Each structure stands twice: as structure tokens, then as C-alpha cells.
Amino acid sequence: MAASSDPSHTIAFQGSPGAYSHLACKAVYPDFTALPCAAFEDAFQAVRDGQARYAMIPVDNSVAGRVADIHHLLPNSGLHIIGEHYQPVNHHLLGVKGATLDDIATVRSHVHALGQCRNIIRRLGIKPVVAADTAGAAAEVARMSDKSVAAIASELAAETYGLVSLQANVEDESHNTTRFVIMSREPLTPPPGALEGVVTSFVFRVRNVPAALYKALGGFATNGVNMTKLESYIVDGHFVAAQFLCEVEGHPEERGVRLAFEELKFFTRELTILGVYRAHPYRFEARADIED
Q: What positions does the domain ACT occupy (predicted)?
């Protein structure tokens, strides 16, 4: 992890230069320096230590689902979610200069990227090889300088490592999109009633009583609060103890959300708000597409 000359205009991300997280950083903060980090924990640490102002963290993908481990890491990051960003994932099949599609025998990329591009891999009859991440795979291909080896990565990765795009948009699903959360040391809570819409993210554990989850969440339904995410995962190695990650539309100080939280707290052992932030316009665009 390299240091930046101006931490106040630096945003940390997990991965190598040219990764999709890097692309998301450039899309949201084009004037910031993007700081690559080896692991999510390193990106969090960079913000906590003042090396970076923000961290750009992927949480979900429309094809692959939630990002592994990140839901365990968010509650203990010591940071606050201050925003969200939806980044379209447009995969490119990258090769060294002079290579053609007919030259390719193997392709390297992250396991999720390979899974998102099964059609072209099968059509070309090439062998997939799992790499740590997409941009790292592109860097490997550049170092190898072998026309028979390609990578699936972003156009930014091609620019970063001097590769050429042999074919663009090779993902199987055109809706392939990754949702990121932007994290900071201090909360940046919008006022109640923000016209753009507000999302509240939180984690909780229910009390060990019958129908506790049903009762805990009932207040959101009776108060007309739209819940957009509810996921459970095992914590502390105990199969009987689950933690829930939840997101609702609305501000905790708005009446409906406030009443729902009061009911939730009655049935929970732990409740931690991860962030209150403005909703990205993509949420409403996607909803409109579904309703149409």
C-alpha cells in the first residue's frame, strides 16, 4: 500500500490499479488520487490512519451476488457509510499487442469475472485460469508477453498495463453491475426528508425467543418502510447465532423509520447503524424498469 501526497484528496480501494474498484473511484471522485490496497482491511486502515479520506468498497454484484467476507468486515471497520455507487461492469478480453482471438488458448481473471463470461470462453474454446483479481490478471498477461494468454478485465486495466482489447463487452449479462459503498471516518448524514431519497444501513442480532425476527421486522411493514436488503450470516462460529445486515429507505429521524427502529430494538441484542446516506439514482431507475 503506497502513501499519497494529499490524503484529503485520496480514496482507497482493494485491488490492483485498473481494477473495477479503481474504475468506480475515478467515476465518483475523478479529481482524487486512487490508492490501491492489498486487502479490504488495508483500505479501511488507510482511512482510519488518515492516508485516505474515503474508501470505495464493493458489496454486491447483480450476477455474482454479495462480495464474500465484506459483510463480516463492515461492522468492525470503524468507518461510516456515506454514499453508494453503482458501477456497470463491462468486461474486455485483453491480450498483448499483436494478438488476435485465434491466438488465445487460456484466459486469466478473477473467479467471478470468469463466471460472468462463460459464453465467450466456451465459444472460443479457451481454458479459464483463476487469478486473484481482474487487474492483477491483466498485469500478469502484460508481464508474460505471450499471445496465447489473455485476461478478462476492464478497459482501464488495458490502458494501465499496455494491453489491447480483443473484444469488448464479453460479459454474459448486459445488466452486470457492482454496487459500492463509500466509507469515511466521520458520518455524513443528510437531513431528514432529503428529496433524493435516503438509505439507512444497519446490522442487528435478534434475541433468542420464538418468532423474534418476525416480530423485530414487523414494525417496518406496519410503518410503511421499504426494506431493500435483508441478509443473514453466521458470526462467532455458532450456527444458532446469526447477524443480519439490513437496508431500508428512509432516515432514522423520520417518523415511520423511527417507530420501526423502536420496535426493532425491543427484540434485538445488538443494533449498529453503519450509515445514513443519499440513495444513488440507479436505485430508482432499476425500480422503474422492473415496474414497467
A: 201-278
CATH code of the domain containing 283: 3.30.70.260
Q: What is the pLDDT of residue 241?
A: 64
Residue 202: active-site member = no
Q: Which of 13, 32, 44, 180 is catalytic?
A: 180
pLDDT digits (tens, 9 = 90+) for 55-68: 999 999 888 788 87
Do 144 and 107 lie in one domain? The reply is: yes
* CA–CA distance, 50 with 245 (Å, rounded to integer): 27
What is the average pLDDT across 159-163?
98
Do both 277 and 205 map to the same domain?
yes
C-alpha distances out from residue 172 to 120, 126, 164, Å: 8, 16, 20
282 part of a folded domain? yes
180 classed as catalytic:
yes
Question: Of 10, 178, 189, 200, which residue is the catalytic one?
Answer: 178
